[in-house]
């Protein structure tokens, strides 16, 4: 049985400075403004976001986190999560695809201990402006990966492969049968259009309609040694990618809440007159309107404060590289679970209650205010938030950490 890989230094260190933050938030806002122009139309038609992904490549965001030595921009995850939040305000589907791209791209480091192979993948990605997706859904049927000479052949179906049909490469994994990695969970990178890969257009859900989250079917897909990033040993550093995914979700839910509030503000300021029992001349001057906005804005600001702290903490933990301990990883994960709980609750409440402020006319399909609620209601079911509550409570009472998994 091969020994566990020895992970080297992390390519990420330090923290985002104001120059980095300002530069990329300016880019993010420009991209968000463009994305917003036809977000409602993409939602109505469930269109795959090919043009938007081109925009992400052209803007430099696709290479944001690749180290400068490999041709990227060398930014930090704190910056990336702020960019995701800006995009989620206008289109959560695009924010999800971009956030997954960065975390899947980072698997080059999390699962690939060989520095030469890391350099190969990062340089190839930066040079071609690859967008990365994944086909790693643990509750979808497992893939069959069987040795075939020095290679493997893979068969099976993976559902909810967000972005796979529009991405350049796909991260996938499964237990190998036979060959050099018999019995091990191998993680590998495949061209999204490799022979035997079929993208199935079966995503027909309430929200996230332009996230390209259809299934992927694999039929005798060849996996060579050159495709394999590494082996998942549930080693503390490599498993930090999972809290990163949950942190991405928290930032997206926060961005959805902020986007719902921003749109509700615009609609409310445009409302004529006021309720006939009100002493105010306009809805925007009504104390009841002020009270509801005040409540929702304050709760959203509290989630923002927690997310900002954790975004920076994530950079601090992944900078440890091979020195990351199980406790480092577990403490980060339980704090991110807290964000998952409150961002879900606040996001759902805000996206629903803004209608109390904007009135019946805002329920028109052409207004598109419902996208915020539909998106967060759809994605917040990704994994049950009650289990996050249990995880946080068990740790608070008994000091127990959740086991390492693809959800915790």
From TrEMBL:
InterPro entries: Acyl-CoA_DH_C (IPR013107), Acyl-CoA_Oxase/DH_mid-dom_sf (IPR046373), AcylCo_DH-like_C (IPR036250), AcylCoA_DH/ox_N (IPR013786), AcylCoA_DH/ox_N_sf (IPR037069), AcylCoA_DH/oxidase_NM_dom_sf (IPR009100). Pfam families: Acyl-CoA_dh_2, Acyl-CoA_dh_N. Residues 26-114 form the Acyl-CoA dehydrogenase/oxidase N-terminal domain. Gene3D superfamilies: Acyl-CoA dehydrogenase/oxidase, N-terminal domain (1.10.540.10), Butyryl-CoA Dehydrogenase, subunit A, domain 2 (2.40.110.10), Butyryl-CoA Dehydrogenase, subunit A, domain 3 (1.20.140.10). The keyword Oxidoreductase applies. Keywords: Oxidoreductase. Residues 248-383 form the Acyl-CoA dehydrogenase C-terminal domain. Coiled coil: none annotated. One of its GO terms (biological process) is L-leucine catabolic process. GO terms for molecular function: 3-methylbutanoyl-CoA dehydrogenase activity; flavin adenine dinucleotide binding. It comes from the Bacteria. This is Acyl-CoA dehydrogenase. It comes from Galbitalea soli. The lineage of its organism: Bacteria, Bacillati, Actinomycetota, Actinomycetes, Micrococcales.
């Amino acid at each position: 049985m091969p020994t566990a890989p020895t992970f080297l230094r992390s390519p990420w260190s330090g923290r985002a400075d104001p120059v980095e933050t300002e530069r990329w938030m300016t880019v993010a806002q420009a991209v968000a403004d463009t994305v917003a122009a036809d977000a409602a139309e993409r939602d109505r038609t469930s269109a795959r976001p090919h043009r938007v992904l081109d925009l992400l490549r052209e803007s430099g965001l696709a290479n944001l986190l690749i180290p400068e030595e490999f041709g990227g921009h060398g930014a930090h995850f704190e910056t990336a999560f702020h960019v995701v939040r800006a995009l989620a305000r206008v289109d959560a589907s695009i924010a999800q695809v971009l956030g997954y791209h960065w975390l899947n791209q980072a698997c080059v480091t999390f699962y690939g201990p060989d520095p030469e192979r890391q350099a190969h993948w990062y340089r190839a990605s930066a040079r071609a402006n690859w967008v990365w997706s994944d086909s790693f859904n643990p509750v979808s049927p497992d893939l069959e990966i069987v040795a075939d000479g020095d290679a493997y052949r893979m068969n099976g179906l993976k559902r909810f492969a967000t972005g796979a049909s529009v991405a350049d490469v796909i991260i996938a994994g499964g237990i190998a049968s036979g060959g050099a990695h018999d019995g091990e969970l191998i993680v590998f990178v495949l061209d999204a259009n490799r022979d035997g890969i079929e993208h199935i257009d079966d995503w027909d859900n309430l929200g996230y309609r332009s996230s390209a989250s259809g299934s992927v079917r694999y039929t005798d897909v060849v996996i060579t040694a050159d495709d394999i990033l590494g082996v998942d040993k549930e080693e503390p550093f490599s498993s930090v990618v999972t809290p990163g995914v949950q942190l991405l979700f928290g930032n997206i839910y926060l961005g959805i809440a902020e986007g719902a509030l921003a749109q509700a503000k615009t609609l409310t300021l445009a409302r004529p007159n006021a309720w006939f029992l009100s002493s105010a001349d306009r809805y925007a001057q009504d104390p009841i309107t002020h009270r509801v906005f005040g409540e929702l804005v304050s709760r959203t600001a509290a989630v923002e404060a927690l997310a900002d702290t954790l975004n920076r903490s994530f950079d601090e933990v992944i900078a440890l590289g091979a020195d990351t301990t199980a406790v480092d990883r577990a403490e980060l994960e339980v704090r991110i679970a807290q964000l998952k709980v409150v961002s879900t609750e606040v996001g759902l409440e805000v996206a629903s209650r803004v209608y109390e402020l904007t009135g019946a006319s805002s329920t028109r399909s052409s207004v598109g205010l419902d996208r915020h609620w539909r998106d967060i209601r759809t994605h917040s079911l990704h994994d049950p938030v009650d289990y996050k509550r249990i995880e946080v409570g068990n740790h608070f009472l008994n000091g127990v950490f959740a086991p390492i998994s693809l959800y915790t």
